[in-house]
């Protein structure tokens, strides 16, 4: 089937010139091979965005040289996790997601420190509940095949609901939750609870064949539990390394206000980042004492499909006032 | 014609497996090639069916020993029911045929190569013979058109056109016994090229696609061609790809018109639809590529198979919002729908707070890049009032 190249931008956006489509190079596929690995696969390979293509650091050719990426690289360092080159990436297809929302119910979630829009104080649980509802409903609106599950995290984790594609089913479990004092955070337990409920796809060719679905864990976490004590089982390690599993985190912290233990929130945040061996997960930190707006915005950024979203460090959402300037890096 | 009923087996027709289990073993290979996907006419969605499987042997002969059956053959919108009679005791011999009610259909043996050199050892032999008989039958029906000079003219003019002449089935056996009125049906395979329809549109149907084909059936209810009823049949996946049942709409047959003018018109209409759909796919793909280029860092999701939708996450002065873009089948003729959504607000009834925009500055003549630029400008102009509206009317 003949398909033309995607339209090319002119002038200011300076898209990379795709090689002309010929018999030996259908759809400019050789340029695209480095990002999707597919040749002549008009179904699975999305149009090549010359701007915003992910930098993989594994000997990718032209796609990473677009002026825009290098401009943003000048603005802030591009972080490429060192082990990224060892991980194959699935094609950028919007397959159904199975999203496991893990909500921390430690008492920090009910501290009334977040500043809501009208200036009054609210708590993280409140905002999280609303944003989870927004999240599942929006995902459902975008694609009715997405499925959701709810896990609550106390001293250990409990699977409350799911998987379901009906957002109302999940939301019905969402609002009757209470926080309590939690001693510790058992990450292994959480991962085991998840392991028991999912089975990740095994595809013959990771880079060219889209999976039937991907699994994403979305952890909203706020307790001061110190560094993560984490000895993952083999099964958990395998899950974390799968190209079809993502572990996104929103970490709500007290900022620099309290440094009660030896570890500061930055250390905890760093240890979450270390879970992300593929460099493809999203990890946000939000201050519990700041504006609730930040938490809202993080959840919005987490709407992005894990196979289609840019590396977190590349993500940028601004609508600029000026017409021709390149987009800025987003603040994380 | 049975596109709508697909492969529904009627109560009295035998499934291939049952028929094959009951037929005399020597005849089984011949029957096999007929019942397993044997197709003889233009209507390739309909299979040949078997009923009334019987044996000419005495009851002393142990089964399975059936050697005769009725074969149902779709033809020109009718179903012919031909008796095919073998002799289980002499399986080498070719069968006899009884051509239903068409008692005066006498095929010319010299036009039946597979009868002349019948080889019971070749499994395809019966199927080929049936095809040859059907061609003869077609000729026989065309002869009957002589009863109406008008219809004969229609036939002759189509015959001359290589586009249609070789893919016709005529049934002129309809006669109104009260009025003596003569009528006929023409079934034409339309030479429309469906090969470039994007595969995802065809894959989506759960029906057996078979061959992608368009058939035009034209019924002449009277010999003077004053009552003419055309009908279009598309194979299920094509119908789906072209937008569903609306794809079957064709102009009425003009009074005083003739097929040689009308049929090309229908072909052109279909070809245009196919082109629209193909073009739409490529245009949508170009559009999404351009939008990813302009907004790529903020993409939430996009349809990477059919390019029918895209959701963007954008921020304006710390205000985050979503834009859902829905691209219609006949894009760019039809304008994409934009739905703006606030991520902070719900409506008073608890729904997501969003606003649909269907008529914003747009031209189908812009290329994808221009559309992206104009969309960006539109977003910038619209967002302030959207934000205001969200905070005024939405619930946090």
Automatic annotation (TrEMBL), chain A:
Location of this chain's protein in the cell: Cytoplasm; Nucleus
Signal peptide: none
GO cellular component: BRCA1-A complex; BRISC complex; cytoplasm; nuclear body
Principal location listed in the UniProt entry: cytoplasm
InterPro entries linked to this entry: BABAM1, vWFA_dom_sf
Keywords: Cell cycle, Cell division, Chromatin regulator, Cytoplasm, DNA damage, DNA repair, Mitosis, Nucleus, Ubl conjugation pathway
Superkingdom of the organism of origin: Eukaryota
Region spans: Disordered: 1-75
Positions with biased composition (Polar residues): 35-45
GO biological-process terms attached to the record: cell division; chromatin organization; double-strand break repair; mitotic G2 DNA damage checkpoint signaling; positive regulation of DNA repair
Low complexity composition bias: residue spans: 61-75
Protein family (similarity comment): Belongs to the BABAM1 family.
Protein name: BRISC and BRCA1-A complex member 1
From TrEMBL, chain B:
Domain notes: Contains 2 ubiquitin-conjugating enzyme family-like (UEV-like) regions. These regions lack the critical Cys residues required for ubiquitination but retain the ability to bind ubiquitin.
Quaternary structure note: Component of the ARISC complex. Component of the BRCA1-A complex. Component of the BRISC complex. Binds polyubiquitin.
One Pfam entry name: BRE
Keyword Hydrolase: no
GO CC terms: BRCA1-A complex; BRISC complex; cytoplasm
Gene that specifies this protein: babam2
InterPro entries: BRE
Name of the protein in question: BRISC and BRCA1-A complex member 2
UniProt entry keywords in alphabetical sequence: Apoptosis, Cell cycle, Cell division, Chromatin regulator, Cytoplasm, DNA damage, DNA repair, Mitosis, Nucleus, Repeat, Ubl conjugation pathway
Role this protein plays: May play a role in homeostasis or cellular differentiation in cells of neural, epithelial and germline origins. May also act as a death receptor-associated anti-apoptotic protein, which inhibits the mitochondrial apoptotic pathway.
Primary location: cytoplasm
Protein family according to the UniProt entry: Belongs to the BABAM2 family.
Gene Ontology biological process: apoptotic process; cell division; chromatin organization; double-strand break repair; mitotic G2 DNA damage checkpoint signaling; positive regulation of DNA repair; response to ionizing radiation
Subcellular location: Cytoplasm; Nucleus
GO terms of molecular function: polyubiquitin modification-dependent protein binding
């Amino acid at each position: 089937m003949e398909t033309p190249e995607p339209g090319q931008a002119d002038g200011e956006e300076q898209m990379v010139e795709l090689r002309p489509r010929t018999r030996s190079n259908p759809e400019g596929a050789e340029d695209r091979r480095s990002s999707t690995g597919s040749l002549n696969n008009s179904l699975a390979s999305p149009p090549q965005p010359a701007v915003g293509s992910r930098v993989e650091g594994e000997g990718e050719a032209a796609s990473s040289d677009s002026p825009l990426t290098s401009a943003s690289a000048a603005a802030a360092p591009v972080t490429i996790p060192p082990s990224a080159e060892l991980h194959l990436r699935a094609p950028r297809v919007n397959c159904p997601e199975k999203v496991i929302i893990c909500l921390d119910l430690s008492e920090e979630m009910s501290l009334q420190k977040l500043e809501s829009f009208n200036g009054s104080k609210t708590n993280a649980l409140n905002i999280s509940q609303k944003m989870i509802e927004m999240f599942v409903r929006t995902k459902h609106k975008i694609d009715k095949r997405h499925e959701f599950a709810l896990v609550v995290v106390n001293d250990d984790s409990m699977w409350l609901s799911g998987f379901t594609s009906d957002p109302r089913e999940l939301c019905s479990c969402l609002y009757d939750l209470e926080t309590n004092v939690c001693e510790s955070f058992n990450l292994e337990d959480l991962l085991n609870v998840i392991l028991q409920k999912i089975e990740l796809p095994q595809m013959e060719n990771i880079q060219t064949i889209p999976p039937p679905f991907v699994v994403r864990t979305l952890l909203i976490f706020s307790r001061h539990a110190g560094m993560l004590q984490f000895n993952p089982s083999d099964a958990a390690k395998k899950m974390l390394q799968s190209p079809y599993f993502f572990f996104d985190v929103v970490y709500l912290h007290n900022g620099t206000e309290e440094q009660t233990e030896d570890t500061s929130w930055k250390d905890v945040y760093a240890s979450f980042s270390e879970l992300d061996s593929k460099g493809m997960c999203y990890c946000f930190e939000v201050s519990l004492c700041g504006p609730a707006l930040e938490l809202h915005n993080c959840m919005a950024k987490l709407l992005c499909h894990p196979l289609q979203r840019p590396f977190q460090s590349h993500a940028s959402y601004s609508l600029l006032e000026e017409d021709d300037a390149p987009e800025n890096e987003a603040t994380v | 014609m049975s596109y709508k009923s697909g492969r529904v087996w009627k109560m009295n027709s035998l499934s291939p497996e049952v028929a094959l289990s009951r037929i005399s073993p020597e005849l089984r290979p011949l029957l096999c090639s007929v019942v397993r996907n044997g197709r003889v006419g233009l209507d390739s969605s309909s299979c040949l069916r078997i009923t009334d499987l019987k044996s000419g042997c005495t009851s002393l002969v142990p089964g399975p020993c059936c050697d005769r059956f009725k074969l149902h053959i779709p033809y020109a919108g009718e179903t012919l029911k031909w008796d095919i009679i073998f002799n289980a005791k002499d399986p080498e011999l070719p069968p006899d045929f009884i051509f239903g009610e068409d008692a005066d259909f006498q095929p010319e043996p010299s036009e039946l190569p597979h009868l002349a050199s019948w080889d019971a050892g070749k499994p395809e032999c019966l199927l080929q013979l049936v095809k040859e008989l059907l061609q003869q039958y077609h000729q026989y029906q065309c002869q009957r058109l002589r009863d109406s000079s008008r219809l004969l003219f229609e036939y002759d003019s189509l015959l001359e056109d290589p586009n249609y002449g070789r893919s016709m089935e005529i049934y002129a056996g309809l006669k109104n016994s009260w009025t003596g009125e003569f009528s006929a049906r023409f079934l034409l395979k339309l030479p429309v090229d469906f090969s470039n329809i994007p595969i995802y549109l065809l894959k989506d149907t759960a029906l057996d696609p078979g061959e992608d084909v368009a058939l035009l059936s034209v019924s002449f209810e009277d010999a003077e061609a004053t009552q003419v009823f055309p009908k279009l049949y598309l194979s299920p996946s094509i119908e789906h790809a072209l937008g569903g049942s609306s794809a079957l709409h064709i102009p009425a047959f003009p009074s005083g018109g003739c097929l040689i003018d009308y049929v090309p018109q229908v072909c052109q209409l279909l070809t245009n639809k196919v082109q629209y759909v193909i073009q739409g796919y490529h245009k949508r793909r170009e559009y999404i590529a351009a939008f990813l280029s302009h907004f790529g860092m903020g993409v939430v999701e996009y349809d990477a198979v059919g390019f029918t939708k895209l959701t963007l996450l954008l921020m304006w002065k710390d205000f985050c919002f979503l834009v859902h873009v829905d691209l219609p089948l006949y894009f760019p003729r039809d304008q994409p729908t934009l739905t703006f959504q606030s991520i902070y607000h719900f409506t008073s009834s608890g729904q997501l707070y969003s606003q649909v925009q269907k008529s914003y500055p747009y031209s189908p003549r812009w290329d994808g890049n221009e559309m992206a630029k104009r969309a960006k400008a539109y977003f910038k102009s619209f967002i302030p009032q959207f934000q205001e509206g969200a905070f005024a009317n939405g619930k946090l």
